[in-house]
Amino acid sequence: xxxxxxxxxxxxxxxxxxxxxxxxxxxxxxxxxxxxxxxxxxxxxxxxxxxxxxxxxxxxxxxxxxxxxxxxxxxxxxxxxxxxxxxxxxxxxxxxxxxxxxxxxxxxxxxxxxxxxxxxxxxxxxxxxxxxxxxxxxxxxxxxxxxxxxxxxxxxxxxxxxxxxxxxxxxxxxxxxxxxxxxxxxxxxxxxxxxxxxxxxxxxxxxxxxxxxxxxxxxxxxxxxxxxxxxxxxxxxxxxxxxxxxxxxxxxxxxxxxxxxxxxxxxxxxxxxxxxxxxxxxxxxxxxxxxxxxxxxxxxxxxxxxxxxxxxxxxxxxxxxxxxxxxxx
Length: 329
Hints:
single chain; alpha/beta; Rossmann fold; seven-stranded parallel β-sheet
């Protein structure tokens, strides 16, 4: 089966591409001009240059493909140009889905995020049915992903788009070349650059388990349904302690109140906007951290046969990969 993967050069996309190759798919990867192709080294994958914001390039990308995995996304919690997030994540997704319909693609897996899901005020894990609205979305990244998922769902109903949605939680593991915002936390903790933390929690999952969940959704998922691909719920304090244990360091003990960190994030964003570079902390990130982002993967387990390894193994694989590839030098 000829399969197009968008975002194949990225962290999750590269893991999905590897899993699909193992399953016998013939792969084509949509890459942007000038993309870092290091995550595709050694993989038998055809590449085609295109851009989600350019519909003409997408027609060529999906031509002859029976399957599509749309993994690509602009994953930034802060940007000088928020409109670019919506152009890629919302408009780009619609462009690609329309191209897939024109090409007669038979099966689509759309990679959303748990960022689009509701959170329980008491900190208990959420699921696919937890109530949520656009007004609950904090920051442009979450809003853009929420709107994109709504567009896909609308096209399933109105255009018979053959799409299944997956909602990964917080993937970590090897080949996080950029790294992602979560990978940056792991990296900074491993390098001893995080002397303090805020009281929050994440659902941590190995990126290769997320990739396996994508294939399961393709093979067993129901059109129009969505499935959380998560792992274990951990406080940020526990995550940092695990990283410290792996590296033989002392974990940070200073817990910072959100009220103190928020003005620091505002200042950091202002500094980055004026002088360039990335902010050390983002307002959206601090605001999101006020709630524990815990999730159940029960639906994926029961309907798809999904499972995940321990968070300790996921964290260890991430730290070891960063160390082997010179990120901790």
